[in-house]
Design brief:
The chain is an alpha+beta fold and 362 residues long. It folds into three domains: 3-102, GAF domain (Beta-Lactamase), CATH 3.30.450; 129-207, Helix Hairpins (Orthogonal Bundle), CATH 1.10.287; 216-359, Histidine kinase-like ATPase, C-terminal domain (Heat Shock Protein 90, 2-Layer Sandwich), CATH 3.30.565. It has helices at residues 40-46, 65-70, 104-170, 176-207, 221-235, 255-271, 303-307, 328-338; strands at 3-9, 14-21, 32-33, 50-52, 74-81, 87-95, 216-219, 241-247, 251-253, 279-285, 289-296, 342-347, 352-359. It has a six-stranded antiparallel β-sheet. A five-stranded mixed β-sheet has the order 8-10-11-13-12. Strands 7-9 form a two-stranded antiparallel ribbon. The longest helix is centred in the middle third of the chain and has 67 residues, at 104-170. The chain is elongated, with a radius of gyration of 37 Å. It starts with a strand and ends with a strand. This is histidine kinase.
């Protein structure tokens, strides 16, 4: 065939995308034909291949305007259909001489090449889409890093100043109203610091390889857990927190991280339990494992909530005074995973219990 082309055929244009011209047909890449003068326009409508061996002997095309206008006797055109079913155009060829085209070898070859072209076009579109998504993700990553920097510096510094000022105020000779206001400021700054810590850990974990820990072979966990209880007791002075500790063996762990985990669990237990009920803390260590249980009375956690409890930004039923981002339990579970341990929950109508289990490697 003297002239072959990949044509983009739309409802108003016929445009050459690629061309092989050995008969000086004179149509370069980007060249156009008037749509109504082409057989491809008809193929666009019925999306079936058209094959002509000899125009003058073909009953359907001997009087057709297109062969007369462009001076060809043999013709083949196969539709190019994209993966999504859209019609792109045609793979077509013409020659001023007759040719034997109506045979499985020729039509099969043209069909195969049309399919390959469609596959290539789909691949190019997917690459362009992927590149766009990558650029968007890179832009989001930059914003995320800036966000972390703001949290880590621009928010924490003034927050530390607020917390320190509240502590200094509480030591002055204030009246009852002043003491109450100073306590509100102190408690609020404590909770805000916890939110910032959780957001930093969440962002760092998602950007890197999870939450990093630094183990200490003989971590004094009992002391650290009591410190967390004391801090929580200042925020909930009227609450009863029962401690049942039995540390018989040093714990090889990151004490700061486990204290953070415990603080999240204890804060939840105090938030989601009746004010007149105790929160029971049980912890023990042996030569083989460390276990921590935080139990409280309150509403049973619904089954649907249990399934996503340790996922980020997932929260249970929230009362008006219970605020947060839903990251505490996710970060607690990540800390457990970093210690190669597990954090599990059981909930009944009588009580809810979060259990941390860290086995020691032999």
């Amino acid at each position: 065939m003297g002239f072959s082309a990949v044509a983009r055929v739309t409802s108003d244009k016929w445009t050459v995308c690629a061309v092989l011209d050995e008969i000086n047909f004179g149509l370069p890449v980007g060249g156009e034909l008037k749509l109504e003068t082409t057989i491809c326009n008809e193929i666009r409508q019925h999306q079936q291949a058209v094959v002509i061996d000899h125009v003058d002997e073909d009953e359907n095309f001997r009087g057709h305007h297109t062969p007369t206008m462009y001076g060809f006797q043999s013709y083949i055109s196969v539709p190019i259909i994209l993966k999504n079913g859209d019609f792109f155009g045609t793979l077509c060829a013409i020659d001023p001489k007759p040719a034997k085209l109506k045979n499985p070898t020729i039509t099969g070859m043209f069909t195969m090449f049309a399919d390959l072209i469609a596959f290539h076009l789909d691949a190019l579109e997917q690459i362009a889409k992927t590149e766009l998504e990558l650029k968007e993700q890179q832009a989001v990553a930059v914003l995320r890093e800036q966000f972390i920097a703001i949290l880590g510096h621009d928010l924490r510094n003034p927050l530390n100043a607020i917390s320190s000022s509240a502590q200094l105020l509480s030591r002055l000779n204030l009246d009852e109203r002043g003491i109450r206001i100073a306590k509100i400021v102190k408690d609020s700054s404590f909770r805000m610091n916890g939110l910032i810590e959780n957001m930093l850990d969440f962002a760092s974990g998602r950007l890197g390889e999870g939450i990093a820990i630094t183990r200490t072979p003989d971590e004094d966990l009992e002391k650290l857990l009591i410190q967390v209880v004391d801090e929580m007791q200042t925020i909930w002075p009227g609450r009863n927190i029962e401690l049942n500790f039995d540390f018989r063996h040093p714990v090889n762990a990151d004490g700061k991280r486990l204290a953070q985990l415990f603080s999240n669990l204890l804060g939840n237990a105090l938030n989601y339990s009746p004010a007149d009920s105790p929160v029971v803390i049980t912890a023990f260590s042996s030569s083989e494992e460390f276990n921590l249980c935080v139990a409280n009375k309150g509403k049973q956690i619904p089954a649907a909530t249990m399934e996503r409890l340790f996922q980020p930004f997932s929260r249970g039923e929230v009362e008006p005074n219970q605020k947060g981002l839903g990251l505490g339990l996710y970060i607690a579970s990540e800390i457990a995973n970093a210690h190669e341990g597990s954090l599990e929950v059981s909930s009944t109508p009588e009580k809810t219990c979060f259990i941390l289990h860290i086995p020691y490697k032999k």
